[in-house]
Design goal:
This protein has 58 residues and is α+β, with helices and mostly antiparallel strands. The chain has a single domain, classed as 2-Layer Sandwich (Ribosomal Protein L30, Chain: A). Helix content is 33%, strand content 26%. It is built from 2 helices and 3 strands, in the order βαβαβ. Pfam families: Ribosomal_L30 (PF00327). One of its GO terms (cellular component) is large ribosomal subunit. Part of the 50S ribosomal subunit.
Length: 58
């Protein structure tokens, strides 16, 4: 299956708890961290919920 690289560009400070949980679920939590995940509908949905905090790299 295809892979997707996600980079955190926004801080979770002063964000709602559900947004922090989504970041942790993606394997992020610190600024400028990059993770490589399977390109699934669940991951794409999490990215769409946090367009101000994450970006797709590549």
């Amino acid at each position: 299956m295809a892979k997707i690289k996600i980079k955190q560009i926004g801080s979770p400070i002063r964000r709602p708890a559900d947004q922090k949980k989504i970041l942790i679920g993606l394997g992020l939590g610190k600024m400028h961290r990059v993770v490589e995940l399977e390109d699934t509908a669940e991951v794409r949905g999490a990215i769409k919920k946090l367009p101000h905090m994450v970006e797709v790299v590549e």
